[in-house]
Design brief:
4 helices; globular; Cytosolic protein
Length: about 70
C-alpha cells in the first residue's frame, strides 16, 4: 500500500515545521515509538505545540479528560 501524503497532511497537526515525516504516518509513528513518544496527531493542538510527546504527558491529558 502506498502512502497518500497529501491526504494525510489534511489531518496532520504537527507544528514542527522542519519535520521531514509530515504526512508520512508510518515513518512518524516509528520515529516517535523509538523515543517512547506518541505522534502529534494524538494530542490536542495546544498540547501538541508544547512538543512534549511523551507517554506521560498523554496520560496526564487522558486523566484530565482532554483526550
Amino acid at each position: 500500500m502506498e502512502c497518500n501524503k497529501e491526504k494525510n497532511l489534511n489531518h496532520c497537526n504537527c507544528s514542527y515545521e522542519p519535520c521531514s515525516r509530515k504526512g508520512i504516518c508510518c515513518e512518524c509513528i516509528s520515529y516517535h515509538a523509538k523515543m517512547r513518544q506518541l505522534p502529534a496527531c494524538v494530542f490536542p493542538d495546544d498540547a501538541e505545540r508544547t512538543y512534549d510527546r511523551s507517554y506521560e504527558h498523554f496520560a496526564r491529558l487522558v486523566k484530565e479528560g482532554r483526550v
